[in-house]
Amino acid sequence: MILTIAFAMLPLMSFAKKDIAEAEEEFNPTDMIMHHIGDSHGWHFFGSGDSSFTLPLPVILYTDNGLVTFMSSEFHHDTEGHHVVEKNGMRFVNFHEKIYQLEADASEVEFDADHHPLNAEKPLDLSITKNVAAMLLTVVLMLLFFFSLAKHHKKHAHAPKGLNNALEALVLFVRDDIAKPQIGDKKYKKFMPFLLTVFFFIWITNLLGLLPGAANVTGNISVTVSLGLFTLVLIIVNGNSDFWKHTLWMPGIPTFVKPILAVVEVLGLIIKPVALMIRLFANITAGHIIILSLLGLIFILESAGVAGVSVPFALFITVLELLVAFLQAFIFTMLSALFIGMAVQEHEHH
Amino acid sequence: MDLIKPEFGLFFWQTIVFLVLLFLMAKFAWKPILNSVKDREDSINDALASAENARLEMKNLKANNEKLLKEAREERDIMIKEARQIKEKMIADASGEAEIKAKSMIASAQEAIKMEKQAALNEIKTQVASLSIEIAEKVVSKELTSKEDHMKLVDSMLDDVKLN
To answer: Global pTM?
Structure first.
């Protein structure tokens, strides 16, 4: 029992360790939280400065002179733009996890009042960041899990046992409780691969995000924008003529209302996936911020006694996040299925 | 604010990674899994349907059997009844015939008796006649002196007859 609690506290403790290191300087809760929920070029686990334990990740930059690649460790954990990395005659600095290409004579990036760099430019950054690496981890896990389930299904006709059985139950949950009721028995099959992939991708990524030192992938707007766009593309590509007629030229209403309604409907079409992406991003990020804020309280109030209150609270929120992780994956998949279902639905002609 | 500003790099990787994942999973995981689950469900449904069919068939068979049994029973009853009737008829016929036969036998026996009797009577008549003649001869041939002699003679004659 104690062991379980201790294990559950592990993520919190790892945050705490980092916080102690930062607290030695001047503790800034906003920076700490933003650092934890944001993306970075190395995968930082614990410690600070040169003594920290960080997994170096490849930095890939598309500059005016072509592709430049090097490992993030070449910045030597510097995110303040002091350490200059020279590659192919170009000089790069990492300022707050953004990589700038310095102009010839500059040694440090300078900004104007609107935070535009004065003596540097931003190359196109296609680095394998912490979030990309975490995303790839989810991919590896999914391939492992579901290829093993598929292997079972290729060999045997009977129901699988153990983990495979649990996975199959989840697959059937997506099919019977999400796809079939929302899209309909006739057309759901076509969308099963997308719905299953998006459900398990979000869920597993959410869960991995709760682990100590893990990345906040689904709580990053870039990731959810991409996922939301997949749903939008599916709606646009698969929308039948009925759907477009109802969107652009709604039948059965006075003609002068039709253009007004068309504007509303087209806006709605775009707002649906936007709502999807914001909901997922906001929920996951909010969960992380709450946990970090509760732990940050210890350092803001500079009292270890606060830990007695904030750690159990943070633990409670972490457990709640386990539920949220599933719930958000479910909601995203459910609403995607619903929107697709609306687009492919056959209207009865009145 | 950085938090809500999409980064192209991450967006790019997410899109690529998701597309590759979608392709791999659809081809190598979801398709075999969903197909096999579908097959299993179909086979379970088939099994259930065939079990239901078998049950119905069994029920029909049972009803049929019962019907057959009932018919057989009825037929048996009819056969028994018929047999009984035949038996009674046969008995009745047999006794009637026997009676007629007996009657005719009795009648013929009576006839035969009558004829025999007639024949015997005729025989007796001839015997008596011949005896009378013999006696008469003897009486005539022997001179009878007394009444007693007469009687004696008659008795002896009768004794002779008896001896015959």
So the answer is: 0.75
